[in-house]
Amino acid sequence: MDVPGLYPLQRCKTLHLVRHAQGVHNVAGEKDFSNFLSPEFFDAHLTPLGWQQVDYLRKHVHETKLSKKIELVIVSPLLRTLQTAVGVFGGEGYKDGIDVPPMMVENAGESHRPAISSLNCPPIVAVELCREYLGVLPCDRRKSISEYRHVFPAIDFSLIESDEDNLWEADSRETKEEIATRGMKFLNWLWTREEREIAVVTHRGFLHHTLSAFGNDCHPSVKSEICTHFANCELRSVVLVDRCMTGSDPATTNYPGKIPSGLDLPSDVADEKLSNGGEGKRTKSRVSRKIKVFLQFLKRIAMAIASEETTRICNHCDRAIPSSNIDLHYAHCSRNLEKCKVCGDMIPKKHAEEHFLNTHAPVSCSLCSETMDREILAVHKGENCPQRIATCEFCEFPLPAIDLAEHQEVCGNRTELCHLCNRYIRLRERYNHESRCTGIAENNVGSSRDVRAIEREEGGPRRQRPERPNYSRRRILFTIAITGIAVLLGSLFFQKKTDSSSQVH
């Protein structure tokens, strides 16, 4: 039978987990995943919308008095997380004349924001254990620590060993198992800190794979609350429990008692001593207590077996639930969950619309704007979209598929010279011709029109060329003589006109 967990207070830490606000790489990656590979998004900064998300979360943190409780802020040393951390947990606007370094200088990382003060805020410490996936994507590679110290003067970078980013590799990406192992190492490191309430500003992938190791012994809805992917600038508060004596902090609120000291015996033992019934009665009392404890133990085992064997189907989610928990489960399930009408999954009501839009809503093709089901979008773009890029089989020119047939009709009628038989062959007939070409060269190479005429069936009508006019030689000589006399007379007339004009001047 499931029962609530109970742990000593000094064995618990409260963690306030925050994913960074929207970065420029998030916007580009949602349009096309390949944009994540672009060097343009190296160590991506926040967008203007991301800074608005930071302002809203900051307002929430102050309204809930969380800013007064947090003793330490741990941040991943990438620009987008550093900007989010100082924007949410930093002090008020920085003023000149204050003799303390600012948490962030003005316009750091193209933020177009004023400087942020380090007064009246928890310390912020950069730790590389809570970084996003390492490798391949330029957006997950950090700048040098010396550059960060210039724009974030009050952030503590002393725990980072290397100035340059030696953990990021261009051709190797960290696996899910490796980032989950790094996440557990990070949580174990948190136990070495003396602070009890800690905020962690990190990344979506790191949070998901680290938290997925938890909640397996909880109700599925609790597991979902822990492991669901974080939205930009989302905050979740969790309690980290030390079950293995990892930490060594003493209790600060426990009180030892017996001050001042005095007689403190169980009532049954005290009654035995007062009654002075002798050793036999005391022995009998001990035996009866042991029997009572053993019977209670057997009763608990029987209840556990019964709860495992007896289940009932929840009318809301159609799951098998232990009978002892069915009422409590149904109340929670019907209030918070609803079944997706498309896939049948149980979805939190507040995320139902988001689930439908991201999973089942029709989408439009970015090439032809046709609306279709999400499942066939990839097939449509690759095979059916009229605006997809196709290549002409004759000239290999890329063009929209809708224009391909008309282009190939024209392109296939172009001709090329066959170097084996010395004839011009149409491109659309080239492959068939090559398979049956005899390789016997012809003496004369004609035009493509002549080739088509030759290839016609024998005996078919052929176009007759018009005969050239037969001019006599005497007529040609007469024409040349008349032309020469006309040129001679013209030149004499032009020379006479030139001499008369020069005498006038």
Tags for this model:
505 residues, five-stranded mixed beta sheet, single chain, 15 strands, Rossmann fold, elongated, Herpes Virus-1, alpha/beta
Beta-strand percentage? Answer: 5-15%
Return the CATH architecture of the domain at 11-241.
3-Layer(aba) Sandwich
Mean pLDDT: 79
Q: What would you report as the Rg, rounded to the nearest angstrom?
A: 44 Å
CATH superfamily of the domain at 11-241: Phosphoglycerate mutase-like
Shape: elongated
- The N- to C-terminal Cα distance equals 131 Å
Short overview:
By secondary structure, the chain is an alpha/beta fold.
What does this protein structure show overall?
- The protein has about 500 residues and is an alpha/beta fold.
- Among the domains are: about 10-240, Phosphoglycerate mutase-like (Rossmann fold, 3-Layer(aba) Sandwich), CATH 3.40.50; about 310-360, 2-Layer Sandwich (Herpes Virus-1), CATH 3.30.40; about 390-455, no CATH class.
- Helices cover about 40% and strands about 10% of the residues.
- The chain contains 17 helices and 15 strands.
- It has a five-stranded mixed sheet with strand order 3-2-4-1-5. A two-stranded antiparallel sheet has the order 6-7. A two-stranded antiparallel sheet has the order 8-9.
- The radius of gyration is 44 Å and the shape is elongated.
